[in-house]
Amino acid sequence: MITFEAEINNKKVKVYSNAPLKNAATALLRTLNQLSQQTNIFNPNFALNYGWARYYLSKRTEGNNSFYVVQTADYQNDPSKLRTDDCTSALIVQNMQVDTNMKAKVEKPEPTLYSDTILVLKEAIGAKDVYMNRSEPSKNGDSGWYFGLLNDENEGNHSTEELVNMPSSELMKFRGEALRVLQMPVGTLAVFHENTMTALVDKDDNPLEFTTADDRKRAIAQKQAAQAAQAENGKEE
After folding, report:
1. Across all residues in the chain, what is the average pLDDT?
2. Residue 33: is it exposed, middle or buried by C-beta count within 10 angstroms (0-12/13-18/19+)?
3. Is the pLDDT assigned to residue 206 strictly greater than 90?
4. Which of 208-212's residues contact partners 24+ apart within 8 Å by CB, and which partners?
5. Alpha carbons 31 and 23: distance in angstroms, whole number
6. CA 115 → CA 32, 78, 79, distances in Å?
7. Where are the domains of the chain?
8. If you count DSSP H runs as helices and E runs as strands, how many of each does the chain have, helices first?
9. What is the number of other CB atoms lying within 10 angstroms of the CB of residue 91?
10. Ramachandran area for residue 187 (φ above 0: left; ψ -120 to 50: alpha; else beta)
């Protein structure tokens, strides 16, 4: 386990990781230091939503020395109830999202918290070719993201039994690469083949860094089909 440390208000704060994620850990510690100038981060009730993850501080004592350990929700098990000292997963997602935002030149990221829900087509969970599209969130706690099947013949006509709302943290279990796009703005469409992102398109159908010409055509066709299906459903109502 790798340890990253910082002195914040004369208190030692440690971040533990199983990978050399120095940039992500340093950014997190820097944010905690900045917050400490405004509020008491060493309050037992303190919690920080930082990007996709949520962090806490836990006081520890070893001999005559006391320090604080940064904890995060346990995304691999039950993030709604469990915490862990191992910040590896949260820091990896942080790096992935920063990388995507930089390559796609996103000026104003629109974060999705690990507990925010995404609408998932059950059939798409184990499929090789899928896509994600972000609409305006319908309520607090809704990310606006839809996870669907690429080239879906029933697009827009699925019953409620075929769909499920789940926390975005569940993506870690079946499509970890999809976590990298969760800060992309409303209108974004991302295409994945297995656990590789093959296309990324903005709300104006402009291809972004990860997109090839063929992928762009396929992504635009998919988006137009979805929009047409939605418009047709609107007429029927």
Report:
1. 89
2. middle
3. no
4. 208/103, 208/104, 208/105, 209/103, 209/104, 210/100, 210/103, 210/104
5. 12
6. 21, 11, 8
7. 2-95, 109-236
8. 4, 12
9. 26
10. left
pTM value?
A: 0.82
pLDDT, tens digit (0-9, with 9 covering 90-100), for 118-165: 999 999 999 999 999 999 998 899 999 999 999 888 888 899 999 999
**Number of neighbouring beta carbons within 10 Å of residue 153:** 7
Structure tokens at 217: 């055509």
Mean per-residue pLDDT, 168-182: 95
The predicted pLDDT at position 18 comes to 92
Q: At what angle do helices 88-103 and 22-36 cross, to 10 degrees?
A: 100
* Structure tokens given for 47: 């919690």
Q: Which two tokens stand for residue 28?
A: 């997190």
> Where do the H-state alpha helices sit in the chain?
22-36, 88-103, 171-174, 213-236
Give pLDDT tens digits for 31-46. 999 999 999 999 999 9
Asked whether the predicted pLDDT for residue 58 surpasses 90, the reply is yes
The Cα–Cα gap between 189 and 68 comes to: 40
* 109's tokens: 């990221």
Cα-flanking dihedrals φ and ψ of residue 195, to 5°?
-110, 30
* pLDDT for res 228: 72
Nearest to 134 by CA among 111, 162, 150: 111
Tokens read off for 38: 């405004």
